Amino acid sequence: MVSLYNTGLELANLLLGSDLLNQSWEAISKLQKQNLTLLEDPSLPFSVKYQIYENPSKGSVIAFVSSPNCAVNHLQQEFRELVSSDQITSFDFLRTRSNTSSISIHKAAFTLFASLENELSLLKQQLTSSQPLIVTGHSLGGSVASLFTLWLLESLPSYGAQQILCITFGSPLLGNNGFQKAMSEHPAWSSCFLHVVSDKDPVPGFLISDHNASAATLTTPTWYMPFGNYLFGSESGFSCFEEPQSILELMIMSSRCAEIENLHNRSQVIDYGHILEQLKNKAICRGISELPDSISNPLQAGTYLLLEATGVGKLQENVNLSYLAMNIAKRAEVQAKRKQNVFDPFKISVTKKSLTYLEWYIKNSLEEAGYYDKYKTRRSRSRDEIESTENLIKHHRTLKFFWKRTVTEVENLPWKEGKIRRKRLLYAATNYRRMVEPLDIAEYYGRGKKDYVLHGRSEHYKLLEKWLAGENTQTYQRSQASSLTVDSCFWAYVEEAVISCQVLKGSPQDQESARGNLMKFEQYVMDMINNFLVSREIFLSQSSFMLWWNEYSKVVGNSYTSPLTNFMNDGFRSYA
């Protein structure tokens, strides 16, 4: 927990001591000088310029700047408008099933991005995931840099994200709460963004509320929310934050102070190069003895030092840093716990023990009625059988718990990433479904219920079946019986056939429907048999299928013939 905020101090020092920030700002400065006439003419409409700077030893830098240079006096009311993701298909990949919030992006930023979309599309095709890349931008150019980085991340394999860093300087907020939630579902993506903000710059906080930052309060509803990591700077130093609500509070306070300070010079554009030069060798650390008595734990202490480094206390005398530090630290604890509890759906090895036990159980059930019926009619006749049953129930639950959560996690991923993960998991998922779902069916009908497929089937089994169908996996003609019955609902259809067989003995008005169902079941079974898609265990003498067949053959009589009766009367010798 302490390391979470020690990292904020250390990361700030690390970045300032490294060449990354200076390298990024140098690229921006070069581009600004190349477009000096456009940048200094406030009468021109907003446009965006970009340039690639190659460095074989350090990787490439792509810089974006907006023209004219964006200062507070350029930002009018219409500048606050958002555009919904429904209207911007370029970023459809941000939408997920778990994030029901509407995703919206800053309209001005997207408009500038769209003006370069064709050029950037060609550029994207030229870039590879093996080459380190910094995408950087100032002000609105930073917003366009962020959108381009997102576009790149979506098109690259997951390991490609490790080679990309987006650094913005004085950039306005980019999206609404739905956008921030979408980004939070991609921690690997979110960690690629670093937004540098000066306490003298009112632009980053301009979009926070309906009114300008000087009128905002900490409880003002906001259209916009921050994402990624923020490097806040003041004369006191720089510090890093990543928790969105904490960033928002700091931005509101910084913007309020920046607005007051720049009230008479609203056209001023902040020179981040000068700020970086001043702070490059300045260590961000303070003695613990200087902390107020109200700070009660190391996390709060680290947070207090971070807030001091941003200069919030000096800018606003009425701000209680201790109180603010305790609130932010509390939210950080909640966030850290959430991160610790994030389920990793790809550690399939945790289920290996349970799968091994289930395989053993299946193998040791072949001398009886097969594992489906052994589980359905389980009766503990000895201590060993009691232990075996208890172990099977435990492993059954372990596997279901794991795969239910896995399916939920994968289904909530954006479409493209979800497709990649589904493909990786497909073999294990299909094997699990074919082994475990029959146990669910056994429990369901063992309780005297009916119509499992419509009323009892877990949603995650349906989704796993869709995964397999969606991959369009190439089918091949089997020449021998499958070790596991391919249709995991096979035993549910057998149980329904048993019920229909009983109906044939009852009221005549229900017999026609039951007879139709049984004819469909016969055809279904023969299709499975002809394609070797059922396990040989269904023909064990005490299996539910054989018990159904024995009863059904009596009901229909010796004169009835069908492909299935011919096959069964032949002793199913052809089924290898």
From TrEMBL:
Domain EDS1 EP residue range list: 358-567
Key words of the record: Cytoplasm, Hydrolase, Nucleus, Plant defense
One Gene Ontology cellular component annotation held by this UniProt entry: cytoplasm
Superkingdom, taxonomy of origin: Eukaryota
SUPFAM superfamilies: alpha/beta-Hydrolases
A Gene Ontology BP annotation from the UniProt entry: lipid metabolic process
Gene3D superfamilies: alpha/beta hydrolase
Pfam families the UniProt entry points to: EDS1_EP, Lipase_3
GO molecular function: carboxylic ester hydrolase activity
Domain annotation Fungal lipase-type: ranges: 87-205
Record's protein name: Senescence-associated carboxylesterase 101-like
